[in-house]
Specification:
Layout: H1 25-48, H2 55-64, H3 67-82, H4 86-107, H5 110-121, H6 130-145, H7 153-182, E1 185-187, H8 197-209, E2 216-218, H9 222-231, H10 235-246, H11 257-273, H12 279-284, H13 292-323, H14 333-348, H15 352-355, H16 361-376, E3 379-382, E4 394-399, E5 405-412, E6 424-429, E7 432-433, E8 439-440, E9 443-447, H17 463-480, H18 501-507, H19 513-516, H20 531-539, H21 545-562, H22 572-579, H23 599-602, H24 612-630, H25 635-646, H26 654-662, H27 669-674
Parallel strand pairs: 5-9
Antiparallel strand pairs: 1-2, 3-4, 4-5, 6-9, 7-8
Helix pairs in contact: 1-2, 1-3, 1-4, 4-7, 5-6, 7-11, 9-14, 13-14, 13-21, 16-17, 17-18, 18-24, 25-26
């Protein structure tokens, strides 16, 4: 297998790109096992070194260990999310305890820990630069937080907890994907009231493909679900879709209810074992926020600031709905998008479907790439000689303003049953400096679930989808522009409540007229998006801001409440209801929960970290205000943002990086102004 497994050796093609066409599911487990074996030998060599521990023979050697394993996992995990299958899911479950066991065996390796501790305790002797010092500090802290100070039976207990946590988080994510794919409803022509034609055409094509011509098939993929709730005039069907979407993974074969209870109990047990009162205390010790008190303080202060605006907004919506006979009873959660969209159309003359023709995906892509060109001097050239993992995927060569190669960018835009919902950025290999001094440039991937093209219409994006593209592309820039020495400190390897700054900052350009004018053209006529349509959209940008904030606060508080428990939870529904009482906007419904499908915190690495979206929103509004002050395409401001934020990764504390860019700490004023709260 070693001679024929393409994951075993460095990739030899152009730019060292992944040879997807040669990789099969059967290659993953042997490659991971071989990678672990080699990595263990590298770790043993560090531990057995008879020379006194120093930065190079211990910290740097550890940083470079496990290259073969990383290569395999950097292909396996992205494909597990974007191109999964029953076979790949089964492999992931089988590998989860193996990988967890390997990681734990390193962090609990006493000989390795003693060498790291020796280097750290003597850190003033090594004459380290800023990045070296951060690598040493992060390595030491990582081992300490992973249980290096534990002894005997406590170490064995931590190993068991980590193994079970890995297995449960993997199963949680697979259950979400499996149940999402299981849902479908078929409608007749009389039930399509209000739905846009592009959604109807797509539903007709999917029904025909399933052997049911003359009907219309709707699934719960995000673009379908969101469009249905926004446009359908059939209130009963909106309710049905809502209850299906929010009722997932609560009962039955793919239930995550017991997994949620077990995961949170295990996380608490792990935190206590490591000397923390709650899992949030453990998790937040390595963030900008630093403590659960600061997180709750931020969330609660935002709730106080935004709640009055949300209540006024709901009063307006209810009155508008009654005056226009849209609903005949108090507004329910499945009514909000529909009523809000109608009010937005009436007050601002904005019909989102009217905007779609001006945002064909190809043009949006050129516009977003062009923005990176205007700000940072980047260029993107499509490649046809680099393999991709699915026909929908495209790959681009990214170069800097001086023509130097920066990396590869993969784009994967459309839903499919093998892809989990949502949008994300990942990579098939990051940025670092090799031992020989050569640069390893990143291969970054942005993955989304946009509205699909039909037989006679290209993919036309909603305004929200354009915002999603900008968001994920911001993450991509963070990876592509990395200029660091060490992979573990490169790109998006930053504190979790700092990682969303580049992505959310990028979203600000969605309401920037000068940016929209560079690419927004009607896909048929080629006419530019009219200035008055841009003006209407920009004027409406504060519409619904209070609802959007309270919705995010609900997610953030639910996450924090789960991870500040001090004992096991028996009733998930009761717990969730109590957790969101201060920010809830509708009465809790039976069999309608967030927790069993909350992938971000139960399978996506955001445990006790969902607040970071609001934390980063404060940062991004403040950062963009610098561009507004100096000109949104100001080269000097963009150069400072690139140099101090995008290039630096986690090589310095993020608060210091931000102060260097902005000249001061971030304040909340710009966010409140942007949302019309003050």
């Amino acid at each position: 297998m070693e001679n024929t497994n393409p994951l075993i050796h460095p990739f030899a093609g152009k730019y060292g790109a992944v040879p997807f066409g040669s990789i099969h599911a059967s290659h993953f487990a042997p490659a991971v096992e071989a990678g672990i074996e080699k990595a263990n030998a590298e770790i043993e060599a560090i531990c057995s070194n008879t020379e006194a521990p120093d930065f190079e023979n211990t910290i740097l050697a550890l940083e470079r260990a496990g290259e073969d394993l990383d290569r395999a996992l950097n292909v396996f995990y992205p494909l597990l999310s974007a191109l999964s299958s029953d076979e790949v899911m089964e492999i992931s479950l089988r590998l989860a305890p193996v990988i967890s066991g390997y990681s734990t065996s390193i962090t609990l390796n006493e000989r390795l820990w003693q060498r790291i501790k020796s280097v750290y305790d003597n850190r003033d002797k090594w004459n380290l630069d800023t990045e070296d010092a951060m690598l040493l500090s992060e390595t030491y802290d990582s081992f300490r937080r992973s249980g290096a100070l534990l002894r005997n039976e406590d170490r064995e207990k931590l190993k068991a907890i980590n193994a079970e946590l890995t297995e449960l988080t993997t199963r949680f994510g697979q259950n979400v994907l499996n149940e999402l794919n299981a849902y479908e409803i078929y409608l007749t022509e009389s039930q399509l009231g209000g739905l846009p034609q592009r959604l109807i055409d797509q539903a007709a094509a999917e029904a025909a493909a399933k052997g049911r011509p003359g009907e219309y098939r709707f699934n719960l993929s995000q673009p379908v679900y969101m469009s249905f709730l926004k446009y359908s005039t059939e209130r009963a069907l909106r309710e049905k879709m809502y209850r299906l979407y929010t009722g997932r993974n609560i009962k039955g074969e793919y239930s995550n209810t017991d997994i949620v209870k077990r995961l949170t109990a295990l996380r608490l047990e792990k935190a206590r074992l490591l000397g923390y009162d709650t899992y949030a205390d453990y998790s937040l010790a390595h963030t900008m926020a630093g403590s659960k008190e600061k997180v709750f303080g931020l969330l609660e202060s935002l709730a106080v600031a935004y709640r009055p605006a949300q209540l006024r907004e709901f009063e307006r919506l209810q009155k508008f709905a009654e005056d226009n006979s849209l609903i005949d009873s108090p507004m329910q959660p499945w009514d909000y998008s529909f009523v809000a969209n109608r009010l937005r159309e009436a007050e601002y003359e904005i019909n989102e479907e009217e905007y779609r023709p001006y945002f064909p995906l190809d043009a949006v892509e050129k516009g977003v790439f062009g923005l990176a060109g205007m700000l940072y001097g980047l260029s993107f050239t499509p490649l046809d000689d680099v393999e991709v993992y699915h026909p929908d995927v495209k790959v681009y060569e990214v170069k800097d303003s001086d023509g130097s190669y920066l990396g590869l960018l993969y784009t994967d835009f459309f839903p499919r049953e093998s892809k989990r919902p949502g949008a994300w950025m990942t990579d098939f290999g990051g940025e670092w400096i090799n031992a020989d001094g050569s640069a390893h440039r990143p291969h970054v991937s942005i993955v989304m679930n946009f509205t699909k093209p039909t037989a006679d219409t290209p993919a036309l994006l909603s305004l929200a989808e354009v915002g999603t593209f900008l968001h994920e592309f911001g993450h991509a820039l963070h990876g592509l522009l990395a200029a660091t020495k060490y992979a573990s400190l490169s790109g998006t390897n930053v504190y979790r409540d700092f990682v969303e700054l580049p992505s959310q900052f990028n979203e600000n350009f969605l309401t920037c007229p000068d940016f929209l004018k560079t690419f927004a053209r009607h896909w048929q006529s080629g006419e530019p998006l009219p200035a008055e349509m841009i003006e209407r959209f920009v004027r409406a940008r504060q519409f619904g801001a209070a609802y959007a904030c309270l919705r995010q606060l609900n997610f953030g508080l639910l996450d924090m409440k789960w991870h500040t428990i001090t004992g096991p939870v028996d009733d998930v529904a009761a717990f969730e209801k109590a957790a969101g009482e201060s920010v809830s906007m509708f009465e809790a419904l039976p069999d309608s929960l967030i927790s069993p499908q909350f992938s971000h915190i139960f399978s996506g690495g955001y445990a006790a970290g969902y607040y970071s979206y609001k934390w980063a929103e404060l940062l991004d509004a403040d950062a963009f205000s610098a561009f507004e002050e100096n000109g949104v395409f100001d080269k000097a401001t963009a150069r400072s943002f690139r140099k101090n934020i995008l290039e630096k990764g986690g090589t310095e504390p993020p608060a210091e990086l931000y102060r260097r860019f902005r000249g001061r700490d971030a304040c909340i004023d710009a966010l409140l102004r942007r949302d019309g709260i003050v």
